[in-house]
Amino acid sequence: MPRKQLQPTQPAVPPSSGVRASTFKLLLDTAMELIQHDGHIPSVAEVAVRSNVSRATAYRYFPSRSALITSVIDASLGPVRSLAPDDRGGRERVHELFRKTFPRFKEFEPQLRAAAQLALEQWALERAGLLEEEPYRRGHRIGILEHALAPLKPDLTPAARDRLHRALSVIYGIESYTILKDMWALGDREMEKTVLWMADALIDAAVRDSGKK
To answer: How far apart are the first and last CA of the chain?
Structure first.
């Protein structure tokens, strides 16, 4: 039986106006800056101190590091998470998605690495029975890729479509970006070309496995 897919952590809904909205923005901006310049995941208490906001107030907005990093990543990737309908084919949607996302990886690299770091840290703590906060669950890319792949549905068997969906989720993320940058020292242009080549190869394999030409 397939393992049940865990639902990704959802970001807090920002207050729409007034003091609450400005306080939320201040805390979020401070967290973004701390990660950008200090390279570590701040505690909610640390963000409160740097923002000159009481800890009690900060915890009302972000009760844990998981809640905080979820909003940080939502602010970093928000534009590529919008799922507007269009008439393009699946391959074109996938290409456009990668082309929009990789510049965001470059701009918000410290924040995205921090999110991956937190997920790994919490995995180890949870496995040891030592995790004391709700875990940060990644996985928004699943819905994003599902939208991009929708036009390919008539061309793929259900099994091939699911396999393609899972395979693309491996290369659509900060993980592939860091491998190509840290291990291969690729520049932005070659990195994009490499990932799009992989995406095309996966799509071609899925179509071929489905018996389509």
So the answer is: 32
> Closest Cα to residue 203, out of 169, 165, 173?
165
Look up residue 164 and give its amino acid: L
pLDDT tens per residue across span 99-140: 999 999 999 999 999 999 999 999 999 999 999 999 999 999
- In angstroms, the Cα distances linking 27 to 103, 106, 142, 152 are 25, 23, 28, 42
**Cβ partners under 8 Å of residue 94, min gap 6:** 145, 148, 149, 168, 199, 203
Q: Rounded to whole angstroms, what are the CA distances from 118 to 19, 130, 135?
A: 30, 14, 9
> What are the residue ranges in the chain where pLDDT is below 70?
1-5, 83-85, 212-213
